[in-house]
Design goal:
Elements: E1 12-18, E2 25-30, H1 33-40, E3 59-66, H2 71-82, H3 115-125, E4 137-140, H4 143-155, E5 165-168, H5 186-191, H6 206-217, E6 238-240, E7 249-251, H7 252-259, E8 271-273, E9 280-282, H8 283-295, H9 297-304, E10 309-310, E11 313-314, H10 317-339, E12 350-351, E13 356-360, H11 375-378, H12 388-391
Helix pairs in contact: 2-3, 3-4, 8-9
Length: 406
């Protein structure tokens, strides 16, 4: 099975906080935050042992980081967020937290985390060269946690890049406590979960995908809008402007250089101006459509198909959603075979039923190997090595032997 896959429609790292004991925090990653939260709260099968404690439920998903160019990229960020005391992505002189103790093995022991420490390290990770140019977005579902973030931003040594979006996605409250680490009320926890509105599929890409398919299928690539050389059909990496009224097509390298003309020291663009329609284009949007066109035949077919029919009968919208969810789980299971080629890295323990990963942040050195998952998923790990090559990003997998619980 090939490792190449399109840039994922959605994959996030998330910060979980207990609504009963806010000092209990947890970081994980998932392509399906709603389903994952239901698992953590015992409403669906699966989940992590430590989030299974009745004394900590319900959990709230306080914030998520999205926009990763691949599943591996998300796992890289997740591990660095969990292990800021040893991750190679943070220079030693820039570390906020340090390992003051050692395990029995002699390896550095992970410091105990809190909401404040995780947010401060998140801010730091968004500024380091490894991640600062990624098309990331931080979305807050908890007003209290967002206030803690804002407080840290005012004291941080440097601001994060303007290209990283910070989104408030919670019901505001005039009576919210000024102490951002106060216990969140049960009602607040219920209201804060606006995650159900997140688009975790490729539906937003459909107009761009349809246009690109039409151009390529009818061999209307024409000439590169930058170097003006003819674009031979099916003979290279060609980018297509996402604006529906523009049919600008260009070599991937030409568009990259066009976007980076004022940033000579950078390798990967963030955004730029279309050479034809002059509209601002986000680089990852262009490359995501390219990755779907080259690597995502299955995803494109699913995206563009019409009314769902099952066993000769029409299917309602809600039934179709359930079927799609089942298919998504099947797609995640396909990653199991691929991870066998990456086992040497051993940087994540993964639930192959959902494609999720989990790691305890604020407790002891105990392993999370007793996670509540199927026997099948206990024996395997899953992730995908996609999107990084298309974006021109370097894959750096850190050795996590120093953290037994990872």
């Amino acid at each position: 099975m090939p490792l190449d896959r399109p840039i994922p429609a959605f994959y996030c790292c998330y910060l979980l906080r207990s609504t009963i004991r806010p000092s209990a925090v947890y970081v994980g990653s998932t392509p399906h935050p709603v389903r994952r939260l239901r698992q953590h709260n015992g409403e669906a099968k699966g989940g992590a042992v430590r989030t299974n404690r009745p004394s900590l439920r319900p959990w709230e998903m306080s914030c998520i980081v999205t926009g990763f160019p691949s599943h591996i990229a998300a796992l890289q960020f997740e591990w660095a967020w969990q292990n800021p005391h040893i991750t190679l992505h943070i220079p030693p002189e820039s570390r906020i937290q340090h390992a003051n103790q050692k395990k029995r093995s002699g390896q550095p022991k992970r410091p105990r985390h809190s909401v404040a420490s995780l947010l401060s390290n998140l801010h730091l990770l968004l500024r380091v060269p490894s991640f600062s140019r990624w098309p990331l977005e931080v979305r807050f579902f908890s007003e209290n946690v967002y206030k803690a973030w804002s407080k840290w931003c005012k004291t941080a040594a440097e601001p994060i890049r303007d290209s990283i979006n910070i989104i408030q996605d919670f019901p505001t409250s005039d009576t919210a406590s000024d102490d951002v680490l106060d216990n969140p009320s049960t009602e607040e926890a219920k209201l804060a979960h606006f995650i159900t509105a997140l688009a975790v599929d490729y539906s937003k890409e459909r107009p761009h995908v349809e246009k690109g398919k039409n151009i390529v299928d009818f061999e209307r690539e024409g000439a590169c809008s930058i170097c003006h050389n003819d674009l031979e059909h099916d003979a290279g990496f060609y980018t297509i402007c996402p604006n529906l009224g523009c049919e600008s097509v260009a070599h991937l390298t030409c568009l990259s250089q066009h976007f980076l003309k004022d940033e000579e020291d950078e390798l990967v663009p963030v955004k730029g101006q279309c050479p034809t329609c002059k509209a601002e284009i986000i680089w990852v949007n262009v490359v995501r459509e390219l990755s779907l066109r080259l690597r995502g035949q299955k995803e494109v077919e699913k995206l563009l198909k019409g009314k769902r029919v099952r066993k000769g009968k029409a299917v309602t919208a809600s039934q179709a959603a359930d079927i799609d969810d089942e298919e998504d789980e099947d797609d995640d299971d396909e990653l199991v075979d691929e991870i066998e080629l990456l086992r040497e890295s051993d940087f994540a323990e993964t639930d192959t039923v959902t494609g999720d990963t989990w790691h305890e942040i604020d407790t002891s050195d105990d392993s999370d190997s007793e996670s509540i998952i199927s026997n099948k998923s206990k024996a395997k790990q899953a992730t995908s090595c996609t999107g990084i090559q298309a974006l021109g990003l370097k894959t750096v997998i850190e050795n996590t032997d120093s953290e037994a619980e990872i």
